[in-house]
Each structure stands twice: as C-alpha cells, then as structure tokens.
Amino acid sequence: MREEKVFFTNQRGERLAGILHHPQSGNPRGAVILCHGMESNKESEKLVFLGQALAQRDMLALRFDFACVGESTGCFENITYSGEVEDLKAAFLFMRTRYGGKIAILGSSMGGTVTLLFAAQSPEVSAVVTIAAPLHPERFLWRLSTPEELQHWRDRGFTLYHGRRINVSLLDDLERMNVSDAAKEISCPVLILHGDRDDVVPVEEAHELYRYIPSAKRLSILQGGDHRLSDPSLMNRVVREAMDWLCEYAG
What confidence tens digit (pLDDT) does each residue in 8-58 have? Predict the structure, then answer.
C-alpha cells in the first residue's frame, strides 16, 4: 500500500492537507473520505487505521485536515460548520479528480454532522457513516453556557473554548443551521454509530437522526460506549461495521 501527501484548496483560498491511501492493487474498487471531529485532525488514530484498512480492501481513502487545524491553513477562531462543509466539498472535488467511481464519506463527531450536511446537498455521495455525530450541535452550547454567557460571547465577538478563541461566527452559524431538515434530504445509505454512554452527544440524538433519514439506513448503538469510544473492543467493532458498510455501498 502507498500513502501520498496531497494538498487542495477550499473556496476561501485556504490550503487543505491530506493523506491519500492507495490500495496495493493500484486499481481501487471504491473511494472514501474520512472526516475528523472538532478537536482532532487527520492523524487521529481511528482515521489512520481506517485509511489503512480501507486500502487493504482495495478502497482509495482520503483523510484530511479541515481548515484551521493540523497542516491545513486558516485560524481556529474562524471555525464554523458551514466552513467545514465547504472544506468537505473541496475534498470531494479533489477525490473526483483521482477517482471516477463511487465516493462515500465517514465523519466522526463534528465531522459526522458536516458529513450529513454535505450529503444532503450532494446526491453524488454513495454512502455515509457517522460516529457520535451531533444532530443538534447548538444544544452543546446550551449545555456549556448560560444565556448570559452566550450574550457575552455575542457582545464581545468571541469566546474561549479550552483556552482557544472562537469567534461569534460559529454562534451565528449554529443559529442558522437545521441538521434535522438536512437529514431528511439525504438519498444515500446511512450507517449511524453511537455509544449509549456518550456524555457529549446524547444517544437520543442518534435515534432521532435515524427517524429522519429517508433512505436505506442502520442504527448501531454501542453498549457502554463513550464519545471517544475509548474501549478498544468497541472501537474495533466501529471500524468493522463502518468498513463493511463502506465496502458494500461504495465498493
């Protein structure tokens, strides 16, 4: 198998960095884009393992850094869901230059929500896998902040999250988004993976997402699974189920 470092540009002119996993045969039977979560990057152990495992099953796999993190350009303070949807579009267009067949997408946490939003507007996507994806990302802010703190964020123009600045553009973006409505527009098969002990994104959001998906779908609830799937046995199950789904619908 061969790993290739690649670069492509989003609509905002930022350079995005990625790693492309080529199957040893040199003749992929499908392609997958892997999307990391908010405080992660393309070097996530989960994404690295998935990229390598997909290549072993003759799939072309791209893991990349969204703008503002890892080796991609941009400032973290400007992070928004809409911006990451644009980044994923750039990754999809790049992948299309390398492969003319089916392209699926897997997204973890925030990357899962971004994947849903993109798939809703992109009928070319052949399949989706989400891992611990928020259906209501705005509720995460409500759990972390009081109304007074949110107003202070708006008045000041930024807030600090884990010591890092995030501009009010994220708050504005969340108030405009409706992931539930977007989910109803997805036409490709969707696999939803979620731990029942996720204390960041309640498992109820996975059940709700499942109800909204109008296409072929499957919901897999991981008993004892937290948000990061820190139990190795559950992580192995996630990888196995995701691989089977991606190879079935994009292979």
Answer: 999 999 999 999 999 988 899 999 999 999 989 999 999 999 999 999 999
Which of 119, 89, 110 has the alpha carbon at shortest distance from 166? 110
The total of other beta-carbon atoms located within 10 Å of residue 204's CB is 13
Based on C-alpha coordinates, what's the Rg of the chain? 17
In the structure, what pLDDT confidence band is assigned to residue 7 with cuts at 50, 70 and 90? very high
Give helix 81-98 / helix 110-121 axis angle, nearest 10°.
Answer: 70
pTM of the model: 0.96
| The pLDDT of residue 108 is above 80 | yes
The pLDDT of residue 35? 98
What is the residue extent of each domain of the chain? 2-136+179-250
The DSSP secondary structure of the chain, one letter per residue, reads -EEEEEEEE-TTS-EEEEEEEEPTTS--SEEEEEE--TT--TT-HHHHHHHHHHHHTTEEEEEEPPTTSTTS-S-GGG--HHHHHHHHHHHHHHHHHH--S-EEEEEETHHHHHHHHHHHH-TTEEEEEEES--S-HHHHHHHH--HHHHHHHHHHSEEEETTEEEEHHHHHHHHH--HHHHHTT--S-EEEEEETT-SSS-HHHHHHHHHH--SSEEEEEETT--TT--SHHHHHHHHHHHHHHHHHHH-
- CB distance 109 to 134 below 8 Å: yes
Q: Where do we find the tokens 């884990």?
A: 162
Give the model's pLDDT for residue 141.
81
Could you tell me which CATH number the domain at 2-136+179-250 has? 3.40.50.1820
User: In angstroms, rounded to a whole number, what is the distance separating the alpha carbons of residues 73 and 139?
Assistant: 29
